[in-house]
Amino acid sequence: MRFLPKLLTLLLAIAIAAGIFRVSHSYFVSEELAKAEGRLSLFRAAVDAEFNRFSHLTFVLSRDPIVIDTAMGQDTDALNMRLRGFADQAGLEAIYLMDQNGLTIAASNHHLPSSFVGQNYSFRPYFSQAMAGQQGRFYAIGTTTGLPGYFITDAVRDGAGDIRGVIAIKIGFAQLEQSWRGSGEQVLLSNADGVVLLSSDPAWRYRMLQDLTPNQRARIQASRQFPGQELAPLDWAMLPDQRAEIAGAEHMHLTATTQPHGWNIHYFASDDRADARASLVTALAVLLAGVGLVIVQIQRNNRVAAALRRSEMEELKLRKANERLAVEITERTTAERRLQRTQQELQRASRLAALGQLSASVTHELGQPIAAMRNHLTAAEFRAQGQGQGDTPQTKLTQTIFGLVDRMEGITRQLKFFARTGQEEFNDVDLCGSLRAALALVEPNVDAFHVDVRVDLPDHPVWVRGSNLRIEQVMTNLLRNAVDAVEDSDAPQIHVRVGVSDQNHWFDIRDNGHGLGQATLADLQEPFVTTRESGRGMGLGLAISSSIVSDHGGTMVAENVDTGGAIFTVTFPISDGDTV
């Protein structure tokens, strides 16, 4: 973790340097783009000049008397010499005259093996354009010489205005391309079909910037515009932000339209200069930042050294004060812990004392009425037997009340367990039988609230060692708590089970009531703690039940159910005499 601040500082410095490089690079790229636009304007002006420099010459030649006479059938020798002189002086590759059928009858290169004389160029678009009365313009590779050129034509008319032939000139762009290659820059000219006509890189010439349609290919083949050329795609791709990739390298990319055909000049400018200048600015900024950081660090070290000298004396005093404070804190912490333990013990002792007083009072107050009830019942039974009534309903009622009186006496005796230190005798107790007895006791409560009680008992006894009456008391308390919990439920339901595991016998009681809320079983086991509203209970049921279960060596757990309600599970150790 100690390297984290240094790492964050390094990352921040890298981010700032990257931001400086990005901003400066964007600025320098914009400058390079401005320069590139200026260079592109020069290239476009040069191409436009080449296209239009001799555009008037065919018009002048078409009105030359010798050209007209030759087109009307006179001897061609004079015109051949005249055209040769014109071509040499103008720097043209060729000047030639064609008759009405496209057959060349006179040419400036008549004396060369590659003479145009006798060649028919009626398939060329420039011938049909001139015959239609327009000035013809066309770029193509010569079918006779194999050299590319730009052709301009005009119709030759007689005195009546009838077309008697076509005069044509061929302009070569070899010098223009040579100047492009000499400049060390990357530029190309493409026609409307996307075919590269001129290029600073010879390998790009006659490559396609875009796929040709079948109609375009048919038209090119019919005019024999690029004989012997494959017209393969150019290795390039346009990118966003005026950039393009060509020949595997990325460049700035600008385009301009030439006249009169609307062809496109593509200029690819390198941004290496922008990269270098941005890198230099970034390095300078980093250097200045480093120098500033060193100065700041030196000043900071001086301040820290002075502060350290001042704090050395204060540290000694602070250390002694801390030692005294540590002793005081230790003593105070110990005292607080003792106080908390004492308070907890006092609170529990207070509750137990109150519970003991209450149990003694209840035992005393209920003892005499219960004894009186037993005496009256005994007298009533003797009277019934003396009158010979036998086994009458009244005797049965008396026996039932006798059982209730016995249970009331047993319950009052249980209130004395808080003060009792001895241990009573345990017997074998069947959990299934105890649970049936407990259910019979709470049956009036169940009927009063229309509770659906589901009992799941095994078909054999489940024996544990203990007091039958006290175990029934635990079950009765838990069942009454469950009935109280489902009192406000729309469909009150209680599910009771008894079971056997490998090491324990158990029973559980589950309800769909309000649950335990935020209280825990430890809270509810404290005397006088209850979740019922005021006047509905004293909070002794779970406290007594927990003590009874503990006396039997068992455990009691409680938890909320996800679907609503709570479940109490009581576990007893298996009886040694269990034969189940």
Globally, the shape reads elongated
Strand count, sense and closure of the main sheet?
6 strands, antiparallel
Q: Hey, roughly how much beta strand do the residues contain?
A: 15-25%
Total number of strands: 18
How do the strands line up in the largest sheet?
7-6-11-10-9-8
Q: So how many helices? A: 14
Helix content: 40-55%
Q: Determine Rg (CA atoms, Å).
A: 58 Å
Low-confidence stretches: 534-538
What would the average pLDDT be, to the nearest integer?
85
First-residue to last-residue Cα separation: 64 Å
Structural class: alpha+beta
Question: What would you note in describing this structure?
Answer:
The protein has 580 residues and is of the alpha+beta class. Helix content is 50%, strand content 19%. The chain has helices spanning 4-52, 57-61, 65-71, 77-90, 125-131, 174-183, 214-222, 272-386, 393-414, 431-441, 443-448, 468-485, 521-524, 541-551, and strands at residues 94-98, 104-107, 136-141, 148-157, 163-171, 186-190, 196-199, 236-239, 243-246, 249-257, 264-269, 427-430, 452-456, 463-466, 493-500, 504-511, 555-560, 566-573. The strands form 4 sheets. It has a 6-stranded antiparallel sheet with strand order 7-6-11-10-9-8. Strands 2-1-5-4-3 form a 5-stranded antiparallel sheet. Strands 13-15-16-18-17 form a 5-stranded mixed sheet, covered by helices on one side. It starts with a helix and ends in a 7-residue tail after the last strand. Residues 534-538 have low confidence and may be disordered.
